[in-house]
């Protein structure tokens, strides 16, 4: 049998942003076709868009665009210019795609079944978000206040997420409390959308587990190690290794990373040693000093 060459190749700028664009479009499609028709106020800026769009009689895309611009400026002030530039593309693209669908595409002829809206809306949004994260993108929006709460108040990232999205969902429940088809029921459906989208995003990015142990067998351990330190500030372990057939001396780098960091690690390896042998596995039962949030991503 001929060996198959699975050498890593670094993602080009155009290919990366093609995937990010695809991810944003899938997110927008899931929101427009499955969340907007029943008017569910889910988390994120899109939830605010539904809420204020209905109360003020404005296009949801316009509300989302305005809020994203405001949040970008807030992020620039509190998080710095680096975070601002990383968030621009997704923050602009989401309302743009939403505007196109609002203008040119009718809603799908779907029966008014809340479970259909919730399951398929959550799944499609999660798939799009997973693609976005996998290729190093960000949707902007409420990611910015979540990061601000995390950094300034030292709250865990998960708590910051629940506070921000929970507040948006609660606002929707209060605003439409007297509507028997919305109100509390809508809030419960919104929570289901969040859970489903989160699960699908996790599977797209990293399979069934969001933490991965990455193993890199390479002849360039120092260069790769230094780049990992610089890019994501993760600790690594260096294990001496030897090729069973070639007897070549190598080093295996072992590190535990989050789903957001896989894209960065992949490009580092592809750039420095595309012939490295790399494999990942689910990392469970993590003990010791490990922080699940690093940097601005």
The ordered H/E elements are: HHHHHHHHEHEEHE
- Strand portion, in percent? 5-15%
Given the C-alpha coordinates, what overall shape results? elongated
Mean pLDDT: 83
Low-confidence parts, pLDDT < 50 over ≥5 residues?
293-297
**Strand order, largest beta sheet:** 2-3-1-4
How many domain regions? 2
Specify the helix fraction band.
55-70%
Radius of gyration: 21 Å
Number of helices: 10
Total E-strand runs: 4
**Largest β sheet strand count, sense and barrel closure:** 4 strands, antiparallel
Q: For the terminal residues, how far apart are their CA atoms?
A: 42 Å
Structure class:
alpha+beta
Written overview of the protein:
With 297 residues, the protein is an alpha+beta fold. It folds into two domains: 13-206, no CATH class; 211-282, Alpha-Beta Plaits. It is 60% helix and 10% strand. It has ten helices and four strands; from the N terminus they run ααααααααβαββαβ. It has a four-stranded antiparallel sheet with strand order 2-3-1-4, with no helix packed on it. It is elongated and about 70 Å long. The chain starts with 12 loop residues before the first helix and ends in a 15-residue tail after the last strand. The model is unreliable at 293-297 (pLDDT under 50).
Keywords:
297 residues, disordered C terminus, 60% helix, alpha+beta, 10 helices
Task: Give the SSE map.
Elements: H1 13-35, H2 44-56, H3 60-79, H4 81-104, H5 114-134, H6 143-152, H7 157-175, H8 183-206, E1 211-218, H9 221-232, E2 237-242, E3 249-258, H10 262-272, E4 277-282
Antiparallel strand pairs: 1-3, 1-4, 2-3
């Amino acid at each position: 049998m001929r060996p198959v060459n699975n050498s890593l190749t670094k993602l080009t700028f155009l290919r990366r942003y093609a995937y990010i664009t695809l991810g944003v479009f899938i997110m927008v499609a899931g929101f427009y076709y499955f969340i907007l028709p029943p008017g569910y106020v889910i988390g994120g800026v899109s939830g605010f868009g539904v809420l204020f769009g209905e109360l003020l009689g404005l296009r949801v895309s316009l509300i989302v665009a305005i809020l994203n611009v405001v949040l970008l400026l807030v992020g620039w002030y509190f998080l710095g210019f680096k975070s601002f530039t990383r968030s621009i593309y997704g923050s602009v693209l989401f309302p743009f795609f939403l505007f196109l669908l609002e203008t040119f595409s009718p809603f799908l002829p779907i029966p008014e079944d809340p479970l259909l809206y919730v399951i398929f809306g959550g799944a499609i949004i999660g798939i799009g978000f997973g693609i976005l994260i996998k290729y190093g993108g960000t949707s902007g929006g409420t990611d910015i206040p979540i990061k601000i709460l995390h950094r300034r108040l030292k709250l865990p990232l998960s708590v910051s997420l629940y506070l921000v999205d929970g507040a948006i969902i609660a606002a929707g429940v209060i605003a439409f409390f007297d509507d028997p088809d919305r109100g509390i029921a809508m809030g419960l459906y919104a929570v289901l959308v969040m859970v489903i989208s989160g699960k699908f995003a996790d599977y797209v990015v990293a399979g069934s587990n969001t933490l991965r142990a990455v193993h890199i067998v390479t002849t360039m351990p120092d260069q790769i190690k230094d780049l990992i330190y610089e890019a994501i500030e993760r600790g690594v372990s260096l294990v001496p290794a030897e090729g069973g057939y070639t007897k070549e001396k190598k080093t295996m780098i072992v590190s535990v990373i989050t789903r957001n960091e896989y894209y960065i690690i992949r490009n580092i390896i592809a750039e420095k040693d595309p012939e490295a042998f790399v494999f990942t596995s689910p990392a469970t039962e993590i003990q010791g000093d490990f922080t699940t949030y690093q940097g601005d991503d």
